[in-house]
Amino acid sequence: MDIEVLKYDLTVCKVRETDDIDLKNGFCFVGVTGEEISLVCETEKTPADTIKREDGWCGLKLAGELDFSLVGILSRVASILADNGISIFAVSTFNTDYILIKKNNLAAALKALENGGCNIIKE
């Protein structure tokens, strides 16, 4: 399995309104429920007025398009990291999955994933 390291820092935050989010501003995931509006975005492009935010994340992309019939891809990566004491924040698109980890865990995460048979792509 190929895993690509994203080149930018990420922030996980809560915002008041979806109008506060610039969807044309690069990497951006939005989750809206009856309780909150969550946003994952590039740190330097985080809206100024957040309710709460947590900086210091980096991203790993499961490279390539993943078919919906595939089973256990995200679970495999999450298990490798969990077995090494590394917590994750996962988000998914139609095409693939992204794993967010704290930046201070990046080196250990990459080593664990390589030892678990993953191919790490750094550009």
What does this protein structure show overall?
There is one protein chain. The model has no long low-confidence stretch (mean pLDDT 89). It is elongated, with a radius of gyration of 15 Å. 18% of the residues are buried. 17% of the residues lie in helices and 38% in strands. With 123 residues, the protein is an alpha+beta fold. Strands 1, 2, 3, 4, 5, 6, 7 and 8 form an eight-stranded mixed sheet that branches. It has one domain (2-121): VC0802-like.
Chain-wise SSE layout:
Layout: E1 2-5, E2 10-15, E3 28-32, E4 37-42, E5 50-62, H1 73-83, E6 89-92, E7 97-102, H2 106-115, E8 119-121
Parallel strand pairs: 1-8
Antiparallel strand pairs: 1-5, 2-4, 2-5, 3-4, 5-7, 6-7
The CATH homology group name: VC0802-like
Question: What is the string of helix and strand elements?
Answer: EEEEEHEEHE
Approximately how much helix is present in the residues? 10-25%
- Number of separate helices: 2
Which architecture per CATH?
A: 2-Layer Sandwich
Can you tell me the number of structural domains? 1
User: How many β-strand stretches?
Assistant: 8
Radius of gyration: 15 Å
Oligomer designation: single chain
Shape: elongated
Structural class label: alpha+beta
Strand content: 35-45%
Q: So what's the CATH class? A: Alpha Beta
Distance linking N and C termini: 17 Å
Give me the CATH fold name.
VC0802-like
Instruction: Please outline the major beta sheet.
Output: 8 strands, mixed
